[in-house]
Design goal:
Blueprint (H helix, E strand, L loop, with lengths): L5 H9 L3 E5 L13 H12 L3 E5 L1 H10 L4 E4 L15 H9 L4 E5 L14 H8 L4 E5 L3 H9 L4 E3 L17 H11 L4 E2 L1 E2 L5 H10 L3 E4 L1 H4 L1 H12 L6 H5 L4
Parallel strand pairs: 1-2, 1-9, 2-3, 3-4, 4-5, 5-6, 6-7, 8-9
Helix pairs in contact: 2-3, 6-7
GO cellular component, one term: cytosol
EC number: 5.1.3.9
Pfam family, one: NanE
């Protein structure tokens, strides 16, 4: 069931029918500066966004100090032996929470972690150890969303569709599966769309299908990838821009 905690519910309801902007930048990207994520977040608020998604304790802290929108926090940690990289450990979750995030996002897929556990096993541990946090489950498919909700996730989204072994071939969002998630889970958790949304029209389609809110990142805050999509298409797709989108940093 959806949370009855008044503080959590106030934050979650503030997202309704709104845009959440993912404000992330890696040090190897051409747009990187120390304060870039702050500018991104401030621009998102100016535009009317209802929330921010941010990566790393450092960047979460910077945004928290300069923008008063609710923050969905995560911590990307890459290892060569796994595709699990979104807040993969309890310690990472604690760092995100202590940095000031209102919501903790973590990988809740069936993939094996660097520690050789199932990624989704972390969710109930975080619920127990950080009960004050709202939990955002990043999943890749319907079955993983179902398991995340059964384990207490407040939010589910198909963020990792396209980032797991079974889905890495995809070229766009799976709207049919997302609509099914909205239909079946809307009374138990907040279903958000995140992943492969590149236009306002696509975001509006997600709301029509039942999304509580829509998270958009690359199409808004990563102009180098937007440019690369154009270049790749004009060049006959000799180079696939999605390789850059999925790259480890």
């Amino acid at each position: 069931m959806k949370t009855n905690d008044p503080r959590k519910k106030e934050i979650l309801e503030s997202f309704r029918n709104g845009l959440i902007v993912s404000c992330q930048v890696q040090k190897d990207e051409p747009i990187y500066t120390n304060d870039m994520v702050v500018k991104m977040a401030q621009a998102a608020k100016w535009a009317g966004a209802v929330g921010i998604r941010a990566n790393t304790p450092e960047q979460i802290r910077l945004i928290k100090e300069n923008c008063d929108l609710p923050i969905i926090g995560l911590y990307k940690i890459w290892h060569e032996d796994t595709d699990v990289f979104i807040t993969p450990t309890l310690e990472a979750c604690r760092e995100v929470w202590e940095a000031g995030a209102d919501i903790i996002a973590l990988d809740c897929t069936s993939q094996l972690t660097h520690e050789k556990t199932k990624a989704w096993d972390l969710l109930p541990i975080v619920k127990r150890e950080i009960p004050e946090a709202i939990i955002f489950a990043d999943v890749a498919n319907y079955a993983e969303a179902r398991r995340a909700i059964d384990n207490g996730a407040d939010i589910v989204a198909p963020t990792l569709y396209g980032y797991t072994e079974e889905t890495k071939h995809i070229e766009g969002a799976n709207m049919r599966e997302f609509a099914r998630m909205c239909r079946d889970f809307k009374d138990e958790a907040y279903v958000l769309m995140e992943g492969h949304i590149y236009t306002p029209e696509e975001a509006m389609e997600c709301l029509y299908l039942g999304a509580h809110a829509v998270v958009v990142g690359s199409a808004i805050t990563r102009p180098h990838l937007t440019a690369k999509r154009f270049v790749d298409l004009l060049g006959g797709y000799q180079d696939n821009w999605r390789d850059a989108e999925r790259s480890k940093h």
